[in-house]
Amino acid sequence: MRLIDLSSLATIGAEHGRIQQDGPVTTISAAGSTDAFVSPDGAASIDRLPGLRLTCPSGPWALSLRVAPDFRAAFDAGALMLRCTTGAWAKLAFEQAPDGRRMAVSVVTKDTSDDANGPAFASDFLHLRACFTGKAFAFHHSLDGSRWDLLRFFALPGKVSAVDIVAQSPTGAGCVARFDLAQLTEKAPENLRDGT
User: Fold this and answer.
1) Do 46 and 107 touch, CB atoms closer than 8 A?
2) Distance CA 28, CA 39 (A)
């Protein structure tokens, strides 16, 4: 396991927001109308996000971090996003629902987006983890960064070349998300469902 210095990562989508470093905390401020979604009902797709990009190891890995979005509008979020060489992608977000609840949300996009809401949390922050087992992917969430609950287990077509750390504000005027405690382990958990 190694700590990731987020300030050393490449910036993406700079035209859609800004990124600031304050000691160990990285703040990503997304402008309004920022999101990544390919609607299954045929509505216009969007892939416009500011953030940071981490190149993935070639073998199994697990990337975790803590995110604290400044929730103001529906779908404001901080997220991890897996990017495939084929154009497919998957997103794990701590996101505000239209009714104000704060939820762990996952989206897997091949041709269109398969969007699924997970549990709601009263906390201002959530730990997110994305894993690659060598064959498939898993998303986990945690309140303390120690016990991890499986949110989604899935496959993607092609090789995942990067993980993006992003913020979004699809319906609002903007969202500020703070990220810290980023860690990369070059192996996946042995059991994706036992809390480790």
Assistant:
1) no
2) 25
